[in-house]
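Q: Convert this sequence to structure tokens.
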Amino acid sequence: MNSPLPLQSPHPFPPRPKPNYTPKPPLLAHNSAQGQTSTIKCASRRSPDDYHATLKALNSRSRRPTKSLGQHYMLNNEINEQLAAAAKVVEGDSVLEIGPGTGSLTNVLINKGATVLAIEKDQHMAALVRERFADIDRFKLLEEDFNKCHIRSHMGSLLESMDLSREKQRHAKVVANIPFNISTDIVKELLPMGDIFSQVVLLLQEETALRLVEAALRTSDYRPINIFVNFYSDPQYKLKVPRSNFFPEPKVDAAIVKFNLKQAADYPTVSSIKSFFSMVNSAFNGKRKMLRKSLQHICTSPEIEEALESIGCLPTSRPEELTLEEFVKLHNLIVRV
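A:
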């Protein structure tokens, strides 16, 4: 009998997560010439990580998840497959992964034929994935802190180095199981990069996912980040992921969210993006205040009331009552750039 793995959770041993999905059949392609259906197989496909493989990888480096880095490792490979499927990762794609950890999601992305640029802050995990994918030309690793990393420069270089004969500067994608404690920072950094990325698919804390995607007007969850997210993208809540799928098990469930990034030409028309978000942030700094008071540093209260009425809002409107489109119209009426 094999001895138990030495790595343990705060409880005796992390329970094997119950399957949350029905395994998918092989991908089928129709052969129009012969009228037959054949199975598409990926050459040199690597075996998927399972529950024990992830724990063994951590044990190989004598590592325990670090709370300060927000580390929670995925134990269910089907969820990694769901992340890749949400981004529609196909052969030839360029993918940015943030915090690869033991490389279980990386493995899925590589099996799908993607070139992966991974950013890992933890030197031990960086060494693990560097060794694991040492024989893969389509894997690049940056041992850096995401918050200090020049994403645009690195991704631009990667795209330029790839075969451009297919499609010049094809947009990259982001697929990542990110640390919950820096999720907002990551969203703010990536969403304005529609010139680099077409899609950003993230595994987030469920509460954060719902707040970013489904926060309703006139609720306490409606904040400047909602204006930001919808200005730069079309967000979609894809799938709930129970907390039992992680090691160590967090105190909250997670969810997969997909952001379809807009191109600059599709952004709402404002005279200055910088001044627009400055106005939005000022409006919400006094959230319970009426806009005619919180925006007095921009113009007079009567002018704000008049502008609000001209866009179909009450002169006593508060920030949580305005949609993105209404904020855009208000900005264009009261802000002089």
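The longest strand covers residues 197-205.
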